Amino acid sequence: MAKPKKRITEYRNYYLPLSFPVLLLAGEYWKISDVPSERLHFHNCLEIGICHSDSGIMEFYDKKVSFKAGDVTFVPRNVPHTTYSTKGTASRWSYIFLDIEEMLKSVLSSAWNNFNMSPEVLANYNYIFDEKQYPNICRLVNHILSELMEKQPGYQLSVRGLVMALFIELMRIEQKFAGGGVAQGPLERLEEKNDLEEDLAIAPALKYIEENYMMQFPMEQLADLCHLSPTHFRRVFHEIMDSSPLDYLNNTRIMKACSLLRSTEDSILSISEQVGFHSVSSFNRSFQRVMQCAPREYRKNMIQTEKNTNSPSILEYRGWMQPE
Fold first, then answer.
1. pLDDT at 70
2. 322 belongs to a structural domain
3. Is 49 among the domain residues?
4. What is the pLDDT of residues 10-56, one digit of tens each?
5. How far from 147 is each of 102, 152, 158, 249, 260, CA to CA, in Å?
6. How far apart are CA 56 and CA 54, in angstroms?
7. 168: burial class by Cβ within 10 Å (0-12, 13-18, 19+)?
8. What tens digit of pLDDT does each residue of 258-271 get?
9. Is the domain of 117 the same as that of 62?
10. What's the pLDDT score for residue 63?
11. Residue 315 domain-assigned?
């Protein structure tokens, strides 16, 4: 018997603006084909989708969940998935990518400092929210979409408030499911004790890097976290990320350094140490390779960019920027 064809998984990395970490993809041309993709994909931030027309399937490896017009979807980072429409249709969508933790930390009181706002708190549940069953969720998401599209005065502050309300609503729903207080109903819950992130073999390594990028650790430690041999881990990691584990770690450090260069007046040396580089010369080389400019030049460019709000960021989005 022939072996089943291996499913390719693609990593899509979105660089969200530090001051307002939201990316909106919307418009009449954002339509999803009825042809199932041969590739699953995952990304580095929370994806909120709003289905405006027709119906179809969201697929998480071998798990399939149906959607229809009016539904709102939430996919946490590092969860592989794909979407395709019902045969003969092309569903229209709007997508909001955001970093909840970065967005809300500047507006929350100190009492919330230890509250987990990261997308991982939603990782056990991959929801498709029906607008009739969850009107509050859908209303909040559509209000956020309207604010982002219209950009009326004060829209960023309004979006932050709406995102906070949305997150609290999601947490309340999650707690009800965790406590057994509410049945899933027509929103078919994906199999218990079979977290979708487990299907992504390198998920523990990605999470560890995100939380410990500033520390020094051997790549073998990442392999152990994924219960893989070092050789097999490196091969699987490269297949998924198109990068070696060490290069991905250093790229993560550079992205964190970019945030510090934009948001602090710390010295280049201090920033290089904060993100985990042994020496400033190594940091400068890595920064030049990834960003195509020196750290000092990047900081200068960002100061000029943010003085002119109409100027685009020099960071280019490497994620999904066209409908499939």
1. 95
2. no
3. yes
4. 778 787 877 788 999 998 888 999 998 878 888 888 899 999 999 99
5. 19, 7, 8, 35, 28
6. 7
7. exposed
8. 878 877 889 999 99
9. yes
10. 81
11. no
Burial of residue 61 (CB within 10 Å: 0-12, 13-18, 19+) is: middle
Those residues whose C-beta lies under 8 Å from the C-beta of residue 52, and which sit 6 or more positions away, are 69, 91, 92, 93, 94
Question: Residue 208 is part of a domain; what is its CATH number?
Answer: 1.10.10.60
How many domains does the structure of the chain reveal? 2
Distance, in Å, from the CA atom of 282 to the CA atom of 273, rounded to the nearest integer, reads 11
Q: Are strands 46-51 and 128-129 parallel, antiparallel or unpaired?
A: unpaired
- Residue span of the structural domain in which 16 resides: 8-196
Tokens representing residue 235 in the block: 């091969």
Asked if residue 144 belongs to a domain, the reply is yes
**Largest pairwise CA distance in the chain:** 63
Q: Are residues 70 and 174 located together in one domain of the fold?
A: yes
Q: Which residues of the chain fall short of a pLDDT of 70?
A: 1-8, 61-62, 106-126, 176-199, 302-324
Would you say the pTM of this structure is higher than 0.85?
no
